Structures are given as structure tokens and as C-alpha cells.
Amino acid sequence: MVDFQGIINGINATAAKTDNRGLCATYIPELAKVDLAKFGIHLINIQQQSFSSGDSDERFSIQSISKVFTLSMALGLVGEKLWQRVDVEPSGDPFNHLSLLEMENGIPRNPLINPGAIVVADILVSLLENPKEDFLAYVKNLANDDSINYDEEVARSEKMTGFRNYAAANLLKSYKNLVNDVDTVLDFYFHQCSISMSCAQLANAFFMFINHGKCKKNNTFLTTRQVKRINSLMLTCGFYDEAGEFAFEVGLPGKSGVGGGIVALLPNKFCVATWSPGLNAKGNSKLGMLALERLTTQTELSIF
Amino acid sequence: MVDFQGIINGINATAAKTDNRGLCATYIPELAKVDLAKFGIHLINIQQQSFSSGDSDERFSIQSISKVFTLSMALGLVGEKLWQRVDVEPSGDPFNHLSLLEMENGIPRNPLINPGAIVVADILVSLLENPKEDFLAYVKNLANDDSINYDEEVARSEKMTGFRNYAAANLLKSYKNLVNDVDTVLDFYFHQCSISMSCAQLANAFFMFINHGKCKKNNTFLTTRQVKRINSLMLTCGFYDEAGEFAFEVGLPGKSGVGGGIVALLPNKFCVATWSPGLNAKGNSKLGMLALERLTTQTELSIF
Amino acid sequence: MVDFQGIINGINATAAKTDNRGLCATYIPELAKVDLAKFGIHLINIQQQSFSSGDSDERFSIQSISKVFTLSMALGLVGEKLWQRVDVEPSGDPFNHLSLLEMENGIPRNPLINPGAIVVADILVSLLENPKEDFLAYVKNLANDDSINYDEEVARSEKMTGFRNYAAANLLKSYKNLVNDVDTVLDFYFHQCSISMSCAQLANAFFMFINHGKCKKNNTFLTTRQVKRINSLMLTCGFYDEAGEFAFEVGLPGKSGVGGGIVALLPNKFCVATWSPGLNAKGNSKLGMLALERLTTQTELSIF
Amino acid sequence: MVDFQGIINGINATAAKTDNRGLCATYIPELAKVDLAKFGIHLINIQQQSFSSGDSDERFSIQSISKVFTLSMALGLVGEKLWQRVDVEPSGDPFNHLSLLEMENGIPRNPLINPGAIVVADILVSLLENPKEDFLAYVKNLANDDSINYDEEVARSEKMTGFRNYAAANLLKSYKNLVNDVDTVLDFYFHQCSISMSCAQLANAFFMFINHGKCKKNNTFLTTRQVKRINSLMLTCGFYDEAGEFAFEVGLPGKSGVGGGIVALLPNKFCVATWSPGLNAKGNSKLGMLALERLTTQTELSIF
User: Fold this and answer.
1) Residue A58: exposed, middle, or buried by beta-carbon count in 10 A (0-12, 13-18, 19+)?
2) Same domain flag for C71 and C167
3) Beta pairing, strands A261-266 & A254-256
4) In terms of CB atoms within 10 Å, which end of chain D has fewer, N or C?
């Protein structure tokens, strides 16, 4: 039996001593002002035992991690038809997603880059009666926690500075791959990114991805096949232009966000969330990457 | 002495017999419903003699031809500083202006492609007290014709379908190469494109480009050097991805619009406007191109 | 205990009844003339038990599968320094590898696309005394089979038609990311692609990737960490523009070749090679993909 | 009557006093060792009067200027069919011609960029009995000077370092837009670039472009229409990524080479060649650009 608590305590102790923590995202004030000293980690195993250390109950902006939730909800609602509007391949593009969009006639490379997530948001806006309320309820159910909420300040700041997302949405619209109007879809999208959650809440919400689509309360959200699809997408596309490096260093499917959160998981075994607001040059949490590498090295649990 | 009237009559007669006239632009209803049978031509020489034939007094949507007017006004107002925000080189890009924008960090290749014209519009919006009124007054002065106006229906339709322009403007904004807000700049831009003018009015308004910056009433709008700059830009960049072909077939600086208008000119000699709403595969007026080729062949007046 | 033999027999029986087998690669005569009716599969588990069915002992051109062997040999020789000359990220580029090379200053995206493999070949040519002999010996050792050899006919045909590879090598040279001369490196590269092996031989040679770098005879070729690196690269980059799809449908690291071979593996569990010369639209063996999907579905053994 | 000699003397005097002369091309030793202090200019008017100053009779490597000669010869031989294999539009690409080649399926944007010139070379290699001898004879005839010759040292150096040209040629070959083998075509291409000529010889050889296709001895090499085509190509594509700037600053069709030469011309009026080996950041002769700008400013003779 792996000593998860001991390993996690060690990771937290090491993190506490690390000076070089990267830099906070600065494009909106809410992210820029977060305390760089924060570090949290929470792991839940398939037996639903929890292990945590550091600031694991402090909430932060989940940002792009929300793309996994919208993808799950949309895939559950529309099934395989989803792939007619967004592809499943890595983007391999260090900087210019819009160029790729133009080359591929408005079909984003995958649902975990911004243009792809905007298409997924459009699908949810079309299907849900009250998109923002219904999606929030979905996340609350997944995490089994009613206190999760949007951060309206963050959503407003995203809207004020999200010119590249407006560019992407309009380009999608020009290719007729956006059904609803740009402002409505982006209002939803900026809200999904603004959700605040703690490491503990994230780990709980991702439990279904290690448990064949069933959440902690044993309700089924996705089929085994759908979970496999999302896990494989997280592995190949979950870390911007560092997906290959993460697959190697950590060896787990996962997703990061510019708020400094990362969730990673080993199917049938465990799911773990880390948070440290400082980012490395490729936009992923610096201490989070190191923590997960250490975790898989010490537990010898990875997919490779 | 060249027999301009005889040549123009011949061109009109030939046009009238031509069946294959290309296709109207269809992206907005106002352009789609124009009568394909229309053809007009109006030429004014440096002595201010006018020669015309066909529907030369019927107004049509000048569309991208307006980019020459906004460029002239902006260059007159800010001078060479303009080139810090937009380059002067041909785009050489058959389809994806946005990609180029990304590769060149938000500096459009030239002011006659859409992203470049949007930057120029932004400059005017910053400088003018009442941008739309002041710009319209400028065009009226150039053409010495007070009846010129915006077509609000066309402007509204452009706005409804201009997703690529919204994408470009937002991308420019993300690179901090757009000072004003996207909606204000594009409202101005869609209006400039919506101006209705006849061949006669266009030829008159372009007179200053053959006359060292002085309009028909001898008022100075630009320096000789500024006129040279705009004429060279029209030659190298005035015809989308057909600039090279136009430079060869016609051999004059000029600018086309998807409303079917083309203006072309030979410095110190003459300036000519044609109109035929059917476009060729590259988006330039089919009969207009043929008419101008015939004109320069028969008059033996071209820059090459 | 999984009934590998039963499952494999079933896969072979299904394959035998499948009419739609894709198309052979036709760019060289040696590949074009292979019998489309061929199908073979060979699996070896971590206990070194072998299971096979169909044409599993017939040799075919391994083509791009050889890139895993050259990468292994080079990584074993130079270690982490290798990544200074080739990156580890998916290429995400459906067609134009050379463009990407230009955008990234001559550093190929990963060692499993052609430009990356050419850099790896260059490294081996620099380090090995007799590059072709030494590399062949390495593959023989891995597979524990002295009968493996180059197919000189195939190598010669590749050379006659390999213009894109010549273009890539020269472009690498222009960026100073190729030390040896183009002809020498490509002669080596075309030979590595020309190696003929059977499913059984391939499965044996890949045994070290499921066994922490130790081959069937327990000799150590790579460290555990190096094996993890190569396995993660196979998962994210092993299937051209179908890596994401393969990661999902099959859920195993692997590598395909245009000769119709595929090798895939589950660390600590098993390694499997399939062969069917007909390719799908993305250049991967059609029946091979189906066979592997069926294998992981029926055994419920995959990484996700 | 314009005082060409007086103006040219003034230009030479100014050049002599200029310290900031740019940098010699350094990629081959033959170009790197040329004396930066050199400056020459030679002008011939339509009446065949010659005016010169400075090192106007010293020979230098014409490099890319040769593309105009090969284009002329090929166009004269095959006529309009030529445009099936190379386009006539500006490339608008500051750096990566190969990318564009891939996007446009192996049809180079125009014959004055390297890939386009390589296609033209391929055409000549196909048509001429003794390509190198016959082409040299053509240039000698144009210039009416039998002493013009290849510089074998330069040709050999080009071959040793021309990896991007090898890449381009192989890519063209992969798109089946190169008939002959790469080495033969590039041997011809490297030779054409190596020709040594003086300003006087170049101005004489370009005389036909101001004289409707007739050389100084009144022999016809091209039709008026073919001359117009080449002149328009020189204007829109003759100066790498500085075509727009040159069209404005100088306002003449022309062609530059990395050896420091520039030829420019005003149809029916004059043709001028300058030489100064120091290049500006875009690869065009620094003093040559300034000299031509001054010439057109002082003579008030330009096409705009």
C-alpha cells in the first residue's frame, strides 16, 4: 500500500522551501494579486480515501481546468456528434491557434485549446435552458459540494481583456462553427473560467474520471468509453505546448489552468489536484509540475 | 491627342455584348441584388476634361475603395508616423490575413487589406471630433460633391455579417494596435465601406492622385510625396491577391471594391473609374478589369 | 488471467472476413505490390509468453517504426543532450512539417516525425563507427534475432523518391541542425526505414519498452526514465496526425509505419505487433488499428 | 533636358562621403571580401546616351539580378505557358518561402523569389541544348559584350552553402514542379547567380526593358507585352520584402542582388545600374537604394 500521506507531506515540505516559484499570471488583476507563497495538494484514491497538505482547501480560479467540465457535460449531452465540430488531435502550435483555425476551416484542433472550448461552450449554450445556472449545478453535483460558485469579478475582468477570445469566437462564427451570438457564448465561457474551487473540490469533481464515469456518490455522468476519450485528450492536449513534457515528466492525464491549478489522475487508482499560483514559461504551475513529477516518481504510479 | 471618348465608347459597347460577367458579391443582400447588366465608366484627364459612357452616374457601394480615402485622410493628419502601426508591403496571402497578423505581432502588412484599414480607421476615430461626419465631409470635398452619403442599410448588413472583421479588430486589440474600442472602430469602418458613389464621383475624388495632391478645385490635400506613397501602395497592394496580375494587365495604380467598382490612374495624365457588379474568382470586377486593360492597351498609356 | 490466444484468434478471424482493408502505400513499387490479404499479429507478455495468429512470421518493411529504434539507440548513447536538437511535443500539423521547421528555427517538433528522425539519424552517423552495420547489430540484439536485415531494393527506391526528405535534411542543414552531409545521413535514414521484420520480431524487439529497458535476454539498453520518455513520445506523437485518435481508440503507446506495421505496448504487461498492408486515410494500417482497438477492449487493458 | 551626368556626379560625391554603408553578404567568402568603399553608377537613356560615375566598370557578382535574364529567356522561349508553373503575385513573406510553397502546392508565388527562379532554371535546362553556354550567350547578346562570364569560384561556393536552395528544389520536385534532377538544375542556377558584370554592362543588358524588347543593337528579344509583364513583376516583386518600400522611395521597376547591384528603369526613358556591396537589413544595397531615390527625386522621373 502506497503511503500517499507521507509522500504528500514531503512534497509540501519541499514546496515550502522552494524559492523559484515562477510568476503569477498578470493579465487580470484578480490573478496578479494572489500570494505566490501558496501551495496546496489534495489526493483521493479509488477507495475514496483523501490525503491533503498545505492550502488544499483554499479556493482559486480554476480557469482552463473548467474546459474538462464543459467537455464532459457536452459529451454527455450530445455524444459522438460533438466531434463533428471539434477535432481530437494535439495542436502542436506554440503560439498561434487562430492560424490553425484558418487552415482547418474553422474546426478547432481539440476541445482543450481556447477555440475548441468556445465551440463546446456554444454547444452548452444551445442545449441548456439556463446555461450558467445549469452548468454550475453540474459542477456542484460532480464535486458533491453546493458551495462552488462563479467569481463575478474574475469573469468581468476576463471579458474586459479577452480580445483573443473575441477574435477566436468571431473567426469561428465566420466559419459557421458558432451557433449562438459571440457575446452570449463568451459570457458563458468567461464565467466557466471564473469558477473558484479548492484542490479538495477539484480532486473530488475529477473522481469520475478514475471511476468509469461515476462520481463519488456513485451517480453515472459518463460512459466508460467517454471517460477514456476525455482522459486521452487530457494526456495529449491538456498542457498547452507542454503536453509532451508533462506526459513524460508526470505520465498522467491532466489539465492545468493559469490560476495555478493542475488536476491529474491515474484511472482506477487516484486523482490529485495541486495549486501554486506561479507559472513556468509555458503557462503551467511551476511547483505543481514539480509536485506531480515527484508524486509519480515516489509512488511509481504512472501510465508509462 | 488620345481619343478618350471614342475608346470609352468602344469599351462600353464591348461590355454590353459580354455575357460572362462574373457573380455579384452575395454576403450581404444589398450587394447581391444589384443588376448584373450594369456597366459604367468615367475618365477625367489632367486638363479636367471628362469622358464617360454607360451607367457612369449611377451610385454603387464603393466598399474597399474607401480604404484609399481613409488612408489619405489619416496620412494627411498624422504623416509618416502612420507607418509605425501599419506596414507598406504586399500581403501575398491568398486567404489568411489573420495568420500573417499573428506572425508579425499585430502590424498589418499594408493599409489596403482589412486589418490595415481597421488600424487606419482607429487612427481617424482617435483624431476626428465627429469621425463619421468629418470623414464624409472629407470625401465630399475631394469629389467636390455634397450629395455623397453613407448607405445605412449596407452599413447595418456589414455589421451583421462582418465576423472576420470583428476577429481582426480583436486580434489587433490583443496586440495593442487598436486604441479605441472594437465596436466604435468597426462602426466607423462599416460606414466607410457603405458609401455610395458613381464612377463620375469616384474619378473626381481621385483627381488629386494624378495632380500632386491637389483636388479639382486646386485645394491641397496631400504632399507630392504622400501621393507617391499612396499611388505605389495602390499598385502593389490594391487588388487583393491579384495585384501582380493587375499591375501587368492594366499597368496602373488602382483600387477595387467588392461592390464592383475600380478606380485606376496614371499620374499627371488621367484617372478613371469603372463599375460592373460581377466579380471574378479573386473578387475584382470582371468587366472592370477587362475595360481597364483595353483602355491602357488602346491608349498605350500605362506606367510600364 | 487474460486469454490472449483466444482474443488474438478472434481478431485474426474477424480480419480475415473484412473486405474494406484500405490501400497499400504506392510511392515505391516494393510497398505497392504487397498482398492486401495479409494479416498478422504477435503478442508477448511480461512473462515472455508469446501468442500469435495469421502471417505473424512474414517480414515486411518496418518503415517509420524504425524511428523508435534509432531514437532508443541515440538516447542510450548521448542521453538528455539529445533534446537540444529535437523537441518532444506533438506536431499537430496535418501536412506541412517543413513550415513548422521554419517557424521553430530548425528544431523539429519531435523525433518521430521525419525531420526529427533525420536529426536522430545524423546523431547516430556522427557517433557510430560503421553506422549502418552498428545500427543493424543493435536491432538484432534487441530482437535477439540475427537474421534481420536491410532491404536494399526498398532503400534504393526510397532514395529515388524521397524528395521531401531531401528538402527536410537540407533545411535542417541550413539551420545548422545537421552535422554530417545530407547524402550520408539520408543514406542511413533510407536504410533504417528499409529494414524487414515480422510481427514476432518486432514484438520481441519492443519487449524492453515494457520491461524497464531490459530486453528479452535481460540485457539493459535504456534506463527506466529513458523508456518512460520514449513510451510517452510514442503515445503523443506515434501516429502522424492520428495520435489523438489512437490514444483514445487503443489507449496504448505505439508506432506505425507505412508498410502496414504497428507496434503497441502496455508497460509491465504486454507488447504487440500487427501487420496489414492496407492503410487508412491518415496513413496508418486500417486493420491494425481495428485489431488493437479490439484487443484493448476485450482485454480491458489500456492506460486510460 | 535632364542633366543626367550632373545628377549622377552628385550622387557619386554624396556616396563617397557616406560612412554608414551597411554590411557585405557573408555567406560565401567571395562576397564577404569585397571592398565596402566601392560605388558605381551607370545610366543609359532611350537615345542610347550613357552617363556614369565611380566604379561603374568594375565587375561584381550579379546574383539575383540574373533572375530577370533567365525569366526573359524562358518567357521568350515558352511564352504564356510559363505561368502554369510559377505565379505572378508578390510573396509578402518576410522569411519563409518554403512554407508558402507548401500551402500553394508547389507553385512558387513569382519568378523573382528563389523557388520561382529555380522553376525557371528548370525550364531552361529542359529547353536548351547546352544550358550554361546558351544562357551565357543570351546575356552576352543582350549586353552586346562578349567578355561577360561565370565566376566558377562563386558558383562553387554557392553550391557548398546553398542548403535552402536544395531544400526548395527538392520540395518543388516532390510537387512534380521540377522536371530535371535537382543537381543539374541547381548547378545551372548557381552559375546564373555567379555571373560577373559591371554597372555599365547591366544597364546595357536591361536596355531592352525600356525599349519594347529590342536591345541596343535593335534585335528583338521580347514582345512589348512580355516586357510589360517583366517590368510589372520587377516593380511588385523585385526587392524581397522591401518591394513596397522601393516602389515608393524609388518608384521604378527594378531588381537587386546580394552582391550589391541594383538595376532600375523607366520605360521609354532610361535604365540605370548601381553597385555598392554593403546591404541594408532587408538584403538590398544600402547606397544603391539611396542613389536611386535621389536620382528619381532630382530628375522627377518616376512612374508615380
Assistant:
1) middle
2) yes
3) antiparallel
4) N
CB contact under 8 A, C94 and A110: no
User: With a threshold of 0.90, does the pTM exceed it?
Assistant: yes
CA distance B275 to B273: 7
Where b means 16+ CB within 10 Å and e means fewer, C152-173 reads eebbebbbeebbbbbbbbbbbb
Residues 6 or more apart in contact with residue D230 via CB below 8 angstroms: D68, D71, D72, D75, D209, D222
Which range marks the domain in which residue A92 is found?
A: 64-194
C244/A229 CB distance under 8 A: no
CA distance B302 to chain A (A): 38
Residue B138 lies in a domain: yes
Here the ipTM equals 0.93
* Coil/strand/helix, residue A55: coil
The answer on A30 and A129 residing in a single domain is no
Contact call for residues C277 and C259 (beta carbons, < 8 A): yes
> Cα separation of C254 and C272, whole Å?
9
Going by the annotation, the residues of the binding site of A for substrate are: 64, 114, 158, 165, 189, 240, 258
Contacts of D162 (CB under 8 A, 6+ apart): D186, D190
Query: What CA–CA distance (Å, rounded) separates A28 from A38?
Result: 19
In 3D, which of C194, C239, C207, C198 has the Cα closest to residue C39? C198
**D304 located within any domain:** no
Closest CA to B104 of B172, B189, B178, B173: B172
* Residue found by looking up cell 458563458 in the block: A188
Residue B175 assigned to a binding site: no
Please judge whether B170 and A164 are an interchain contact, meaning their C-beta atoms are less than 8 angstroms apart: yes
Distances (CA, A) of A41 to A234, A274, C153: 19, 4, 58
C240 is catalytic: yes
Query: pLDDT by residue for chain A (304 residues), tens digit each?
Result: 789 999 999 999 999 999 999 999 998 999 999 999 999 999 999 999 999 999 999 999 999 999 999 999 999 999 999 999 999 988 766 544 576 676 678 999 899 999 999 999 999 999 999 999 999 999 999 999 999 999 999 999 999 999 999 999 999 999 999 999 999 999 999 999 999 999 999 999 999 999 999 999 999 999 999 999 999 999 999 988 888 889 988 999 999 999 999 999 999 999 999 999 999 998 999 999 999 999 999 998 988 8
Q: In the listed set A162, A194, A226, which residue is the last one of a domain according to the structure?
A: A194
Domain count for chain A: 2
**Rg from Cα positions in chain B:** 18
